């Protein structure tokens, strides 16, 4: 992982030597005053790139990750699969032989960007002292990184779920810097139900005795609370019909859910084992404080906040938009994408991913949008 100083990074143009696609780098963007009044004195942003930037800077594409995602969108030169390999790469819809793709780990996360586990100026982890971060704060930080990379205007900005919120804010905050904006499986503002699901997850973490108000570094981490949060979230990421088709009421291997006198001694249904597995995977790779910070940032998402009515805000947008939803999504309902599209200038259709999987189909079934997205944005 290479750290760059807060100075122009010129080695991204098409006549520069190869940089290594899909390899993590870190840049310092300096101090950042946050929307709610907090301040970070020296922000580091971790990012990855693929392809080469044209001399006129016209082929830069920003891809935004979801809540517990990372900047590793595509495999590139690394050994690790990317989370949108089917969309981004040589010959893909976002063709890295033609476009310079950038992905940034969100401010407050735990994949290399400044977050609660990072060291504060006193040499100790930020922990509970890490300030509140909004989606707009993250976008302003990404704007400073784009300046360093020599990108004055994005060919396109796209993302799904929380990444869609960041993409939309880019188009609203910096309309002169975003030609095209794709918002997939996301809304113009987090709804009451979305906030309610998020609050239950945050309480699961905060009520874990190991959480210690966020100052648990150097001791046990709140793995139980983070695991419960993931279970709650994952239920919203999947559709009922998929869970029923995959698991039904089947028992987990030889375990017997009705085979014990005491509830604590009973076995599990297969769907319970599945949720346990998803929780274990996240606990192994994610920091609980970052989960809290990023979840609260997504709860804050509201395109109209302090800007007037939603209709006026969306109606003034100048980027070309691509809006998509998942037909079985029960976290970000398709009607919310239709409302977003209806508020934007012109006739903006809502493209639909059809899948029994629910919200997560924006990751696993993104290939369904290849033709529509390629035709709209990438010259197919």
Structure explained in plain terms:
By secondary structure, the chain is of the alpha/beta class. It folds into 2 domains: 2-190 and 305-375, 3-Layer(aba) Sandwich (Rossmann fold), CATH 3.40.50; 194-297, Rna Polymerase Sigma Factor, Chain: A (Orthogonal Bundle), CATH 1.10.1740. 31% of the residues lie in helices and 16% in strands. The chain is built from 11 helices and 11 strands. The protein has helices at residues 135-148, 162-173, 192-206, 223-237, 240-246, 270-285, 288-299, 310-315, 334-343, 361-364, 370-377; strands at 2-4, 25-33, 39-50, 60-64, 88-89, 94-95, 100-104, 156-160, 180-184, 320-326, 350-353. The protein has a 9-stranded mixed β-sheet with strand order 1-2-3-7-4-8-9-10-11, sandwiched between helices. Strands 5-6 form a two-stranded parallel sheet. Strand 8 (156-160), helix 2 (162-173) and strand 9 (180-184) form a beta-alpha-beta unit. Helix 1 packs across helix 2 (162-173), helix 3 (192-206) runs antiparallel to helix 4 and helix 3 (192-206) runs antiparallel to helix 7 (288-299). The longest helix has 16 residues, at 270-285. The chain is globular. The two termini are 35 Å apart. Mean pLDDT is 94; it is low at 1-12.
